[in-house]
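User: Can you fold this complex?
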Amino acid sequence: MDLPVIEPSPPAAAGCSAGSCGSTARQMDALSDAVRARVQDHPCYSEDAHHYFARMHVAVAPACNIQCHYCNRKYDCANESRPGVVSEVLTPDQAVRKTLAVAATIPQMSVLGIAGPGDPLANPARTFETFRQLALKAPDIKLCVSTNGLVLPDYVEELARYNIDHVTITINCVDPAVGARIYPWIFWKNRRVFGHEAAAILIAQQQKGLEMLTARGILVKVNSVLIPGVNDAHLPEVSKIVKAKGAFLHNVMPLIAEAEHGTFYGVMGQRSPQPAELKALQDACAGDMNMMRHCRQCRADAVGLLGEDRGAEFTLDKIEAMEIDYEAAMVVRAELRAQIAAELAEKRARAHAPAAATTPQVIRIQPHVAKSAPPVGRPVLMAVAAKNGLVAVHFGHAREFLVYEASADGARLVGHRKAESYCAGDESCGDAEAVLAATIRALADCEVVLCSRIGFEPWGQLEAAGIQPNGEYAMQAIEEAVMAVWNEMLAAGKLAVGQIAAKRA
Ligand code: CLF
Ligand code: SF4
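Assistant: Here's the predicted assembly.
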């Protein structure tokens, strides 16, 4: 098999003014070499890695031991997925074959997660049989699990036995009064427990499991679902507490509640948060914690890079027909991993290169200049149609946009927005008015959209909505392109501190 080509990054553009100096790079720099090695190819634990490495989930765990008001069991686990039925629940043997087939076909697939559609630890025989086989047959794949935490303390030893190094616990609250509004019941010691008592047990088990995992040196990510009016004011406290107990990363995700999903919240009209609310809460938590901002709320049977789903290529009938030579695949996978690791190391080195090594068109902004100096330039949100860390997607073909905040401190990823691709060909954008209008609404708080190309019609409509399209940085690294645009706006006098963008005023 030929090695997939990792597109070369463009020449260094902006040294520390580039986004590589944003929060991710700082977080990565702060890690010990040993911890960095454990996260650098995990697309969820490292923001950089998510541009290069893929994950997959196998849906071997249908049952659950609690009820969340945002979940309907006919749909994927909302802890780790967007609503939508799981196409196929797999047996462990089927899951192992599927994993080997995907890993041999997509060598960037570095992580296998079990994340539902129920709770993996409420299905221990199926979950651990899958992990047991994969630990033997595919030792180059990282194993990852996501749980509601109710029975986690019972399984910490077993997780460690299979070398499971990454565990996600969904913790929505640390106060049973809040929990009683999220969890109507749990199944505990052969009986159903309701309300406040149920929430108190769940919280105690989650906290105990977290402490046990971190004591064993297992990396723990905490997921929290932001439910406006229920736990929004409470989540900064959750963040503080889980950090104090050693959690590595906190991922605050927006509630997805639609009446058609048949969830309690959906039917009762509980609203989901707006992107700005989510960002504000993530920012409020960020003082205490490393925050994950690139989660895509994957399906429990997702396959591919975050934000893409290649599951349809690996249905049971298709993988039955595949010939898999995993020994050969491991050689290819190792070469690719080394290639990506070298590229990421080079990117980190560029981010710390002396200012003289940067290209001249970018105005250098040194973060945190002198203490007495006035702040330089207001922050700007920019949407990017991206692939593999580059501004590489035609506006009309984008199915999602990454949203970056550019400021004197650099570029940092703050979220993403889903979109529908409305353009069938390279030259024919602008036909699908409704799709374009929905995309413009989704990007309403952004001032710039960067893409590789864009048609005349959407260009005009974006401009009319106060969003400046920009196709000047095609195939350039995202953060460097974002900072170059920010510096251009600064030089043009558009970013005076205190000046609010006209569209938001
Ligand atoms: Fe899957 Fe979760 Fe492991 Fe990642 S997903 S079990 S940690 S391999 Fe990642 Fe998907 Fe967000 Fe989960 S983007 S929903 S955080
Ligand atoms: Fe649904 Fe997951 Fe909650 Fe279980 S833990 S009820 S599967 S969201």
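The chain is about 35% helix and 15% strand. Confidence is low (pLDDT under 50) at residues 1-23, 78-85, 356-371.
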